[in-house]
Amino acid sequence: MNWYPWLNHSYKQIIAQHVAQRGHHALLIQALPGMGDDALIWGIGRWLMCRQPEGLKSCGKCHACELMQAGTHPDWYRLEAEKGKNALGIDAVRSVTEKLYHHAQQGGAKVVWLPDAQQLTEAAANALLKTLEEPPKNTWFLLSSREPSRLLPTLRSRCLLWHLPPPDEAQSLQWLQKHCSASLNERSAALRLSAGAPAAALALLEEKNWQQRLRVCQALPAALSGDIMSLLAVFNYDDVARRIGWLCSLLVDAAKWQQGGGQFIGNIDQQALVIHLASLLPTSALDASLRQWVVCRDRLLTVVAVNRELLLTEQLLSWETIIKPVFSGSELKE
Predict the structure, then answer these.
(1) Among 139, 163, 187, where does a domain finish?
(2) Residues 32 and 94 in one domain
(3) For the DNA polymerase III subunit delta' AAA+ ATPase lid domain, which residue ranges apply (predicted)?
């Protein structure tokens, strides 16, 4: 598992609390995708499992460390939804929590890792809550969540919330430069489009992903001035939410440009397109467009068995009603 330099500070602080016998039994880490919270939790878990830790580091030599490195430690429990599902039910939680009240098979700590605590159903969260309220001795819970506010308040209250912030932009750009050949503008754009998470930016800069983004950018001008429905072929893919996110970022940048905030745009490598959108669409049209696309994206992500093509078609037709008056001259840019 990759370790990232921006994890060092949080790791040292958390482990130092354990060394001082002040470690919280339930740690809830809030982090953006691409921040490496899974690596941070893995590092913490290895230290907790190690039988002969060397200060803030696990020894890497004891039997517990060998088992962790091999991924076969019997007292390390990973709780997540089954493949193809997005909900973690009560049975899976009970199966693990019952084992926690037995003696650790290796005689040391027992650690439960939830890579995505938001997968917990309400019943599963309540079942876990009972164990969090009265945890067995030497048992630790490590949870990750992108949006802790979506978790049950009672569950959050039993955890120590730890925010894993993105590193500053200069540090991230330097790290990206070591790992890819993209230009400064491309690296800056990828980083800002990834909310500052360096590993997510690196993934976006991969050839396939970057070309998909460029396709969205390149198709937009012609579609706006011609056939808006041509965008259906650009958006109708499994990663539609990400593609809509790229479109929304361009609309936001155009609004920033109109207000004199050009230095804050995310799509630095697409400045010409941002200026084009800012000069083409009135502020009211940008605002209405953005609101529509955000709602569409949310429906695509949350509605069970949604008909993606039908929803996109409906959205594009609706968007056309906002944009069409601009080209007919019936609406002037504010």
Answers:
(1) 163
(2) yes
(3) 167-205
Checking if the pLDDT of 311 tops 60, the result is yes
Q: Is residue 198 part of a domain?
A: no
Q: What is the DSSP string of 187-247?
A: HHHHHHHTTT-HHHHHHHTSHHHHHHHHHHHHHHHHHHHS-GGGGHHHH-STTHHHHHHHH
Per-residue pLDDT reduced to its tens digit, 127-169 = 999 999 999 999 999 999 999 999 999 999 999 999 999 999 9
The span from the CA of 88 to the CA of 160, in Å, is: 22
How is residue 43 written in tokens? 């590092």
| DSSP annotation of 309 | H
Residue 42: give its domain's CATH number: 3.40.50.300
Phi, psi of 309, deg, nearest 5: -65, -40
Domain around 27? 6-163
Residue type, 270: Q
Is the pLDDT at 86 greater than 50, yes or no?
A: yes
Write down which residue in 101, 129, 163 finishes a domain: 163
Closest CA to 320 of 234, 213, 223: 223
- What single DSSP character describes residue 156? H
The CATH code of the domain that includes 302 is: 1.20.272.10
From CA 73, how far away is CA 262, in angstroms rounded? Answer: 52
CB 275 within 8 Å of CB 257: yes
Structural domain tally of the chain? 2
Say if CB 129 and CB 155 are below 8 A apart.
yes
Are residue 218 and residue 301 in the same domain, yes or no? yes
**Residue 186 to residues 175, 177, 213, 221, 244: CA-CA distances in angstroms?**
14, 11, 12, 20, 19
Highest mean pLDDT among 77-91, 98-112, 196-210: 196-210
